[in-house]
Write a structure and sequence with these properties.
The complex is a heterodimer of chains A (about 270) and B (about 220). Chain A is an alpha/beta fold and about 270 residues long. Chain A is built from twelve helices and eight strands. Chain A has one domain: Rossmann fold. In chain A, about 40% of the residues lie in helices and about 15% in strands. An eight-stranded mixed β-sheet of chain A has the order 3-4-2-5-1-6-7-8, with helices on both faces. In chain A, α1 packs across α11 and α5 packs parallel to α6. The longest helix of chain A has 16 residues. Chain A is globular and about 55 Å long. Chain B has four helices and 15 strands. Chain B has a six-stranded mixed β-sheet with strand order 5-7-9-11-14-15, with no helix packed on it. In chain B, strands 6-8-10-12-13 form a five-stranded mixed β-sheet, with no helix packed on it. A four-stranded mixed β-sheet of chain B has the order 1-2-3-4. Chain B is elongated and about 60 Å long. The two termini of chain B are about 35 Å apart. Classes of the chains: A alpha/beta (about 270), B alpha/beta (about 220). The complex binds adenosine-5'-triphosphate and magnesium ion (MG). The site of magnesium ion has 5 residues of chain A, from α1.
Chain lengths: ~270, ~220
């Protein structure tokens, strides 16, 4: 079966796309999936650092596009996970070096030998967003539980729906339950209600995330897993179609139960 | 807003202006009159013009484009059954075919003439706008950053958190109804209000209308 291409995007910058890509890539590879992660943030690469592969890069995405090397040569293998590869971004070029068709061509070639291709999209809705979105079979929107990030996520979902791309699913990153209960932060239910797309994961705020990123060791790799590390593994499971329970967001309301009761064929 | 010569309706991609029979210069003047009379309705929007089987010269297309631009409207498409006009429009960088309405679009949604309501299903998201000279029904939420601009009334069968301008062509009797009325801003005709300071503890359907020169919201249906 041909591999699937999953693009990870957000609208607002700095919400955790690259962190999610690195951890999800690792978690999927730990489940035996053959994974390629593509750093599509040309000019601002950092997925290589989070995966601890910075010093192994020889070629990059733009070298592949411009024919200076074959796709195979551009892939960097992970040190511990032999089924995880990185296609790094060029650091010295800008996003005009990549066209949507280039990404489609590269992903079509990768689908043959890999189960999952994850694309770490740049922030914003310009060129970089467009080319990262073009080859996607599925989309993951990352947001933080705060108003401006959710607003940008909404904007991006609107664009995706208008292009009839998707399905898009949601990851809420950096949730702090204590902040939510004090009313300083949106809750999971608030964000899901606003964005009205399926939730695929909630990742708590975890100070280890920064340390892990700097050390080039994604949290998902660690043996004694942090709560965030757990959350990344849950997302990987859900992406592979496993039923992984969420903490219940809210009780179904009475009329919803009634609806299910009268029209069982629709559920 | 239907006159003999110029018809305007809302479509998925913005407004569609249909130029019917008549002298070209009269039609342009009629279009200009619409644009001038209702700046709040048109300004910032995009418009496609259906010119029927007319054979237009590049200068005529340019004239339409600058007329629109003058009123802060983007002319993005010229639709015609005349092949020469199509070619000229393409040469001017305009679209000449409107995307067909989506296959999964439920009946009743999408292109409606001005005297019928425009029904839109699904969440209206940040950055998205619905404009229609008649009434507008949104089956879904209107999120913050989204806008509905209607000549008539607006009904939101969902949460209204964005901006709604009803009665934009001057109809002060227009109303705005929502299952949860928590807009960033409401406007009816020339009146204007921000979100009410006090909220119901649990959202109830509300109807906003102009009473004694102010926008007032009451529970809907009322007592
Ligand atoms: N769950 C978390 N808990 C704590 N810190 C986090 C968490 N997720 C991400 N961070 C931190 O947030 C910062 C931004 O993360 P990241 O680089 O992954 O975001 P991004 O969306 O890729 O940013 P950009 O838009 O610039 O590409 C990093 O310092 C990262 O360590
Ligand atoms: Mg990033």
């Amino acid at each position: 079966m041909a591999g699937r291409v999953v693009t990870i995007t957000s609208g607002k910058g700095g919400v955790g796309k690259t962190t999610l890509t690195a951890n999800l890539g690792a978690a999927l590879a730990m489940r035996g999936q053959r994974v390629v992660v593509i750093d599509a943030d040309v000019g601002l690469r950092n997925l290589d650092v989070m995966l601890g592969l910075e010093n192994r890069i020889v070629y990059d995405l733009v070298d592949v596009i411009e024919g200076r090397c074959r796709l195979r040569q551009g892939l960097v293998r992970h040190k511990q996970l032999p089924e995880l590869y990185l296609l790094p971004a060029a650091q010295t070029r800008d996003k005009s070096a990549v066209q949507p068709e280039d990404m489609v061509r590269i992903c079509d070639e990768l689908r043959g030998d890999h189960d999952v291709v994850l694309i770490d999209s740049p922030a914003g809705i310009e060129q970089g967003f467009r080319y990262a979105m073009e080859p996607a079979d599925e989309i993951i929107i990352v947001t933080n539980p705060e108003v401006s990030a959710a607003r940008d996520a909404d904007r991006v979902i609107g664009l995706i729906e208008a292009e009839e791309k998707g399905p898009a699913r949601l990851v809420i990153n950096r949730l702090e339950p204590s902040m939510v209960s004090k009313g300083h932060m949106l809750g999971v239910a608030d964000v899901v209600e606003l964005l009205a797309i399926d939730l695929i994961g909630v990742v708590p705020e975890d100070s280890n995330a920064l340390i892990a990123a700097n050390r080039g060791q994604p949290l998902a790799l660690s043996n004694n897993r942090s709560r965030a590390g757990h959350a990344f593994h849950n997302i990987a499971g859900r992406l592979l179609g496993e039923e992984v329970d969420f903490q219940p967001l809210r009780q179904p309301r009475v009329f919803e139960r009634l609806l299910r009761f009268v029209s069982p064929e629709r559920s | 807003m239907i006159t003999e010569s110029v018809a305007i309706k809302g479509i998925r991609q913005g407004l569609l202006v249909t130029l019917r029979k008549g002298e070209w210069s009269c039609l342009l003047a009629a279009l200009e009159a619409h644009l001038t009379e209702n700046p709040t309705f048109f300004s910032g929007g995009r418009m496609a013009v259906d010119v029927g089987d007319r054979c237009l010269m590049p200068s005529q297309i340019e004239a339409m484009r600058s007329l629109a631009a003058h009123h802060e409207v983007e002319l993005w498409a010229v639709v015609s059954s005349n092949e020469e006009t199509q070619a000229e429009a393409r040469g001017a960088g305009l679209v000449t075919e409107l995307a067909p309405t989506r296959a999964h679009q439920p009946p009743g949604e999408g292109d409606e003439p001005a005297d019928r309501a425009l029904v839109r299903q699904g969440t209206l998201r940040s950055g998205q706008t619905v404009r229609h000279p008649g009434h507008v029904v949104i089956i879904g939420d209107v999120n913050p950053g989204a806008e509905v601009v209607a000549g008539g009334s607006v009904v939101v069968w969902g949460r209204l958190r964005g901006l709604v301008h009803a009665g934009v062509l001057g109809d002060e009797l227009a109303v705005i109804c929502a299952l949860d009325l928590a807009p960033t801003q409401l406007r009816i005709g020339g009146h204007f209000s921000r979100s009410p300071e006090e909220r119901w503890s649990r959202p109830v359907p509300e109807k906003a209308s102009v009473v004694d020169g102010r926008i007032v919201a009451v529970a809907w249906p009322g007592e």
